[in-house]
Write a structure and sequence with these properties.
Layout (H helix, E strand, L loop, with lengths): L4 H6 L7 E4 L3 E5 L9 E5 L11 H22 L3 E5 L15 E6 L16 H14 L1
Antiparallel strand pairs: 1-2, 2-3, 3-5, 4-5
Length: about 140
């Protein structure tokens, strides 16, 4: 089996412009730059989805996400930032290695993240919340 593109990057078999790296987490510039300074943050271990992270990996990953987000804001002067993290094909995950997109945003930048805004009745929300609570 061929290693995934992010594993190749982390092993030095493919190029990347790193902005951060330690033993557990790496951050590098995304090839796609809908806005300047878009960065991907990944665990250095091959972890396919959010569901597969350990608690320790989760803490390490999101500490770096916040550190990189703050650096992006400082350097770019962005007005906001989107975190995008997708899981599995149905969730539009394009690389089977967990990654968090940090996308700086400015008013009127033309980038659109969209889904239908349909409010559910409170009773339906309470039912869904109860189902989730029971899964803990």
């Amino acid at each position: 089996m061929t290693p995934c593109v992010f594993c190749n990057i982390l092993a030095g078999r493919a190029e990347a412009s790193f902005v951060y790296r330690d033993a557990s987490v790496a951050a590098f510039m995304s090839l796609e730059q809908p806005n300047p300074y878009k960065v991907l943050v990944v665990p250095t271990a091959h972890v396919e989805t959010l569901y597969d992270l350990t608690d320790a990996q989760t803490a390490e990953l999101f500490q770096v996400v916040v550190k990189v987000a703050r650096a992006i804001r400082l350097v770019s002067g962005c007005e906001g930032l989107n975190l995008v993290q997708s899981n599995s094909t149905a969730g539009q995950q394009d690389v089977p290695h967990l990654h968090v997109h940090l996308l700086p945003r400015w008013s009127g930048d033309g980038v659109v993240l969209s889904w239908p805004h349909v409010e559910e009745p409170r009773a339906a929300l309470e039912r869904l919340a109860a189902e989730l609570k029971s899964a803990f």
